[in-house]
Amino acid sequence: MKKVLIISTSPRKGGNSEILADEFAAGAREAGHEVEKVCLYDKTINFCKGCLVCQKTQCCVIHDDADAIMRKMKDADVIVFATPIYYYEMCGQMKTMLDRANPLFPSEYAFRDIYLLASAAENEESAVDGAVNGLKGWIACFEKARLKGVVRGVGATDPGDIRHRPSALEAARVMGKNL
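The structure corresponding to this sequence follows.
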């Protein structure tokens, strides 16, 4: 059994990327894994100040909801990020959370496998490439971690549109089941 943390980064409750996150969670639970989903839409996460105190203390000087999420990240075996694609990149909330996870860099983190679930209004799968590359940049700082899988839920403009993309829903569920 693996400890799975899903971080739904969309500012919109019940959005397309969160639906993908729920499918991944269902598959992981079916396989017997422990799953926790954290949604950022109701959290307060301030921008990193770049002070680098966290590199010595493994704690951030900013005390907001990012602290608790970062601790959950540290203890998870698997981290799944779900994001809508804005301007061919991950949403700002996801990038801010990645920046605020800086205290993890010098720590003894547990995570090894990272997944990305992305929804995009555009129909081309390449619309997700910027988010993949951005997440790969973060992962490159964690030598024990790797990007294990990506679901590209394209062609989903309005809330709930992803439900009309059964292949993306199934891909997320199967990915969760096959951890």
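The domain at 3-177 is CATH 3.40.50.360 (Rossmann fold).
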